[in-house]
Specification:
The protein is α+β, with helices and mostly antiparallel strands. The chain folds into two domains: about 5-100, Orthogonal Bundle (Helix Hairpins), CATH 1.10.287.40; about 115-420, BirA Bifunctional Protein, domain 2, CATH 3.30.930.10. It is about 40% helix and about 20% strand. It has twelve helices and 15 strands. The strands form four sheets. It has an eight-stranded mixed sheet with strand order 1-8-9-10-13-7-6-2. It has a three-stranded mixed sheet with strand order 5-11-12. β11 and β12 form a beta hairpin. α3 runs antiparallel to α4 (about 70-100) and α5 crosses α12 (about 385-395). The longest helix has about 35 residues, at about 25-65.
């Protein structure tokens, strides 16, 4: 969340941020609620002080053996008035909290303005393959090789779920181990194996709630949610903690399954591995001092790109526009792989700096050695990377005329030295 004091003192900056995001959040309405809440709180505090004064007067009257009844009656009336005001405050405070959680983060000034069409391609790496045959998409390849069973996954659960089988299962496991080894052994991340179910506070800290509620899976009649990404449990490892400055930056890497309803995907391409409700992902999370965070963001992007460089896949890096970044993000890069069978670019990583937005929600601070004050940290994350579309890209880029798929060299040691996937 944003610093509410900043919002009060800089409404025009916040309104400009909302315009850039094309957000319909009513800031004027929030500020009215905020002013009413503050006025009510001031009145309650003033009457509470008067109540204390009267209580002391009653004690003095009793001590001086004077009749305190009239003062006691006044005290009861005042107490009843305070109780009414506190009930009123409780209602307005709840509305204030709900509204404050709906204010999106302020986009960094470096972002292009506009919708997704304004996203800026910063670089393209690798050549898209040229085939001497008509390339197949990953659905056809997977079916021919018998490594993914979409039909039975639908029977077991429903549409847009996936069942890997045989060598497809081994490929998933190899990719997870490869990425975790890379990030922990070469890039300095500490591996985390977090819970895959979190509470509502954790979802609220990272910004999935309340805004993305329709995309999340909640366990019925509980406060628990299936995680949409490892970002949620891993970032919340530090919630409500005062971190040691010497321990920053903190770098975590975690593999988890991820669960998303994709409620807003109607009309989008959802076939095959394009948009599934459960997928595997290796997530990178960094927690830093404010002056370290944008350098850390560059590092996360480089670490995610390193995965694709080692797999020798064609990819590009995009700087997202003000309307395309997530609710909680201040700046975000997307990394996309080219899938020749689909003739599409597939997003496999989003790398974001949230600045203090998540830290304020989760109360994550450190004690600054210079100011001697407790300061909010900056939080960042990035996919390092997501598997469903990564597997689609590997199958499509490495497919051969005979229907087999060459295994990227960097994965072969995880697959008993095997060089191809054959039927």
């Amino acid at each position: 969340m944003l610093d509410i004091k900043f919002v009060r003192e800089n409404p025009q900056i916040v309104k400009e941020s909302l315009r850039k995001r094309n957000s319909n959040f009513d800031l004027d309405d929030f500020l009215k609620i905020d002013q009413a809440r503050r006025s009510l709180l001031t009145k309650i505090e003033s009457l509470a002080a008067e109540q204390n004064r009267i209580s002391n007067k009653i004690k003095e009257l009793i001590k001086d053996k004077k009749d305190p009844q009239e003062t006691i009656n006044n005290s009861k009336k005042l107490k009843a008035e305070i109780e009414l005001l506190r009930n009123e405050f409780k209602n307005i405070d709840q509305a204030w909290i709900e509204k404050s959680l709906q204010i999106p983060n302020i986009p960094d000034s470096s972002l292009p303005k506009g919708d997704a069409s304004a996203n800026k391609v910063l670089k393209e790496v690798g050549r898209t393959p040229k085939f001497k045959f008509e390339p197949k998409d990953h659905l056809q390849i997977a079916k021919n090789l018998d490594i993914i069973d979409f039909k039975r996954a639908t029977k077991i659960t429903g549409s847009n779920f996936v069942c890997f089988k045989g060598f497809g299962s081994r490929l998933v496991r190899a990719l997870i181990n490869f990425m975790l080894d890379l990030h922990t052994e070469r890039n300095g991340y500490q591996e985390i194996w977090p819970p895959k179910i979190v509470n509502q506070d954790s979802m609220q800290t990272t910004g999935q709630l309340p805004n993305l509620k329709e995309d999340m899976y909640r366990l019925e009649d509980t406060d628990f949610w299936l995680i949409p990404t490892a970002e949620v449990p891993v970032t919340n490892l530090c919630s409500n903690e005062l971190l040691e400055e010497k321990d920053l930056p903190i770098s975590y890497a975690a593999y988890t399954p991820c669960f998303r309803k994709e409620a807003g995907s109607y009309g989008k391409d959802t076939k095959g591995l394009m948009r599934v409700h459960e997928f595997d992902k290796v997530e990178l999370v960094k927690i830093t001092k404010p002056n370290q965070s944008y350098k850390a963001l560059d590092t996360i992007v480089a670490n995610a790109c390193q995965v694709l460089d080692l797999l020798k896949l064609p990819y590009r890096v995009l700087l997202l526009s003000t309307e395309d970044i997530s609710f909680a993000s201040a700046k975000c890069y997307d990394i996309e792989l080219f899938a020749p069978g689909l003739d599409k670019w597939l997003e496999v990583s989003s790398c974001s700096n949230f600045e203090t937005f998540q830290a304020r929600r989760g109360n994550i601070k450190y004690k600054d050695s210079e100011t001697k004050k407790n300061q909010y940290v900056h939080t960042l994350n990035g996919s390092g990377v997501a598997l469903a579309r990564l597997i689609a890209a590997i199958l499509e880029n490495y497919q051969q005329k005979d229907g087999s798929v060459i295994i990227p060299k960097v994965l072969r040691s995880y697959l008993s030295g095997r060089k191809r996937i054959k039927k």
